Amino acid sequence: MPPVPPPQEDPRPAAARARWRPRRVLIARSARDSAVAQRARRAARELGAEVVELGGDAVRGLAGRNERETYRNAKATLAIVNAPPSALKFAPIPPSADFRLDLARGCPAHCQYCYLAGSLSGPPVTRAYANLDEIFAAVPAHVGRGRITSASAARSHEGTTFEASCYTDPLGIEHLTGGLSEAVRFFGTQPDAGLRFTTKFSEVGGLLGLPHNGRTRVRFSVNAEDITRRFDGGTARLADRLAALGAVARAGYPVGLTVAPIMPIEGWEEAYGALFRDAGAALPADADLTVELITHRFTPGSREVLLGWYPGTKLEMDAATRTQKRNKFGGTKYVYPKELMKQMRAWFEEAVERELPGGVVLYWT
Ligand code: SF4
Predict the structure, then answer these.
(1) Which of 83, 119, 143, 363 has its CA 20 to 30 A from that of 281?
(2) Mutate which of 111, 112, 222, 313 to test ligand 1's pocket (most atoms within 8 Å of Cβ)?
(3) What string of H, E and C letters represents the secondary structure of 99-120?
(4) What domain of life is recorded for the organism (predicted)?
(5) pLDDT digit string (tens) for 111-169?
């Protein structure tokens, strides 16, 4: 696949430019009467997508004649299904939040470094969950039991936190499912809990007037502009993400920047400096802002999947230039060498302090 070309002028309103238009929407039998399925049918009709009412719950029919075609079929398909019982027991998800809360699994965008590669198996179809009431009903049993914000003096005001973007980009499918708005409303009623999500999309209009009560932190996944242009396919332009960041902050949401994946490209200090200056200019002075700093890494498995999806990628994934690290399960990941990491960390922490005064760096990894 050739590198993603620079965005062209688009006559649509800025926030709608990156709106995903699936070719097919599959509705699982057990989810067919849900509000999410009803919304998805309506949106699919408006977008000209085919709606298929499945006779059962299995999501099939994605296989193409080769890996590329299977990828294209899956990325053009939204399935509305019920979350399995295992998704109702929320797993810990350090360092971002106490627990993972999935509204969906899979993402329609085409980022060439996607962190889902290697962590989700099978064709990369987006499965949006319909049994939201069951998911939200599982929240109270987790409140007070987390080890990240719940156990932190500095962050305890956030309550027990639930991260909704571990396996999806919830804003990227919101125009089809409405699940994110439901979650924001639900957490608005939970004084001891908080929702967090991060996104590379920008269509936030539907979130601005919701009764969020400050219990949802909306973060935008951003990068140096050159990296977003070269490697983020099917997402909102950086300028649109930053405009959306300002809009949700002005609507009273706590906000955040997820700077990821950080890469020491040529001139990285200038490139990331410009990112922080633009973010600062988009934000109101009183924004409640956190910053997460995540460097690029890959595993042998994710590298193999990504090279299958994006065979022409220019993304650097050369194990010989990286440091090998083992995780607690014995797996291997490749990160930047220690000295470079130290140098970049010092620069990023100082740059956040300089360009985004009041912004709190949550972690560097
Ligand atoms: S937006 Fe996030 S989840 Fe979606 S393809 Fe890009 S990196 Fe992957």
Answers:
(1) 363
(2) 111
(3) EECCCEECCCCEECCCCCECCE
(4) Bacteria
(5) 999 989 888 888 999 999 999 999 999 999 999 998 888 888 888 889 999 999 999 99
Ligand 1 binding residues, C-beta < 6 A: 107, 109, 111, 114-116, 169, 200, 235
Of ligand 1's atoms, which has the minimum distance to the CA of residue 232? Answer: 6
Domain of 138: which CATH number? Answer: 3.40.50.12110
Q: Quick check: is 180 in a domain?
A: yes
| Phi, psi for 323 (deg, rounded to 5) | -100, 135
Atom number, ligand 1, closest to the C-alpha of residue 116: 8
**To test ligand 1's pocket by mutation, which of 19, 107, 120 has the most ligand atoms within 8 angstroms of CB?**
107
Under 8 Å between Cβ of 49 and 20:
no
C-alpha distances in Å from residue 6, one per residue of 13, 19, 134, 170, 287: 18, 17, 42, 24, 31
pLDDT attached to residue 14: 64
Name the residue with the closest Cα to ligand 1, atom 7: 114
Determine which of 2-11, 81-90, 159-168 has the lowest per-residue pLDDT on average.
2-11
Going from the Cα of 77 to the center of ligand 1, the distance in angstroms, rounded, reads 15
Structural domain includes residue 200: no
Residue 207 amino acid letter:
L
Residue 149 lies in a domain: yes
Digit-coded pLDDT (tens) for 269-328: 999 999 999 999 999 999 999 999 999 999 999 999 999 999 999 999 999 999 999 977
- Between the CA of 234 and the centroid of ligand 1 the distance, in Å, is 9
Report percent pLDDT > 70 for the chain: 96
Please tell me the total count of domains within the chain: 1
4: confidence class by pLDDT, cuts 50, 70, 90: very low
In this structure, are residues 244 and 15 in contact, taking their beta carbons and an 8 Å threshold? yes
Q: Which domain holds residue 118?
A: 19-191
Query: In Å, how far from its chain's centre is CA 111?
Result: 11
- Which among 105, 113, 116 is the best mutation to test ligand 1's pocket, defined by most ligand atoms within 8 Å of the CB? 116
How far is the centre of ligand 1, averaged over its atoms, from the C-alpha of 201 (Å)? Answer: 10
Please indicate, yes or no, if residue 10 is contained in any of the structural domains: no
